[in-house]
Design a protein that fits this description.
By secondary structure, this protein is an alpha+beta fold. It contains four helices and eleven strands. The termini are far apart.
């Protein structure tokens, strides 16, 4: 299983309410993905994802225009509580932190949406296998610019708050194991996503 998990991101190393009134009234409110109760309003486009971890909170702006299918898939998983309680099981200093379940599930796959944004520090992306359309639940966050990933993986979010938390997570002690030519870095002390949720951007953003 470790080999399968590693291949998700190691491959390159180997080869809403739209109305202004609603935005103002609901600024910063945590959303469950539905419209106003009884209003018949469509599902909200929250634009912001929050990851509350055991080492602090990170907030990401979601890039719906660049990767609409990827964002929609991530939002669906977040609303379902998929990431709650899951660890960042792979932490590679100077590279990425990664969370998910290794793809051992029946979740849908997402067609690859590559190239719109560079892999800079704080970029949130969707990992995959050799098939470019195999991304599903595995997410990663870049700890540094990773230009070799550009054009091969979908960046669907950028960190807006909590870069200090990201850097602390990236520096935790790990146990390094190798699977063939790929390093699997497991934190000695688990770093957990305690809660993931979506919220609307504040009116001042």
């Amino acid at each position: 299983m470790i080999s399968k998990l590693l291949r998700r991101l190691a491959l390159p190393l180997l080869t809403v309410w739209v109305a202004a009134a609603a935005l103002s009234a609901q600024a910063g409110v945590i959303l469950d993905g539905g419209g106003l109760p009884g209003s018949g309003a469509p599902a909200v486009d929250p634009a912001v994802a929050v990851l509350e971890t055991s080492m602090g909170t990170m907030t990401f702006r979601l890039l719906r225009d660049a990767a609409p299918a990827t964002v929609a898939n991530f939002e669906r998983l977040v609303r379902a509580g998929f990431y709650d309680g899951k660890p960042f099981y792979r932490i590679v200093a100077g590279h990425v932190i990664q969370a998910g379940d290794g793809g051992d599930n029946d979740q849908p796959k997402v067609k690859g949406e590559f190239g719109a944004h560079a892999h800079i520090e704080g970029a949130l992306g969707l990992a995959r296998d050799a098939d470019p359309d195999s991304g599903s639940t595995e997410i990663y966050i870049c700890l540094a610019p990773r230009p070799h990933l550009d054009g091969s993986y979908a960046v669907f979010g950028l960190i807006e708050d909590g870069i200090d938390v990201l850097r602390r997570i990236g520096g935790v002690p790990v146990v390094e194991k190798w699977d063939g030519r790929v390093a699997f870095h497991k934190p000695i002390k688990p770093v957990i996503i305690e809660r993931a949720y979506l919220k609307q951007r504040s009116a001042s953003d």
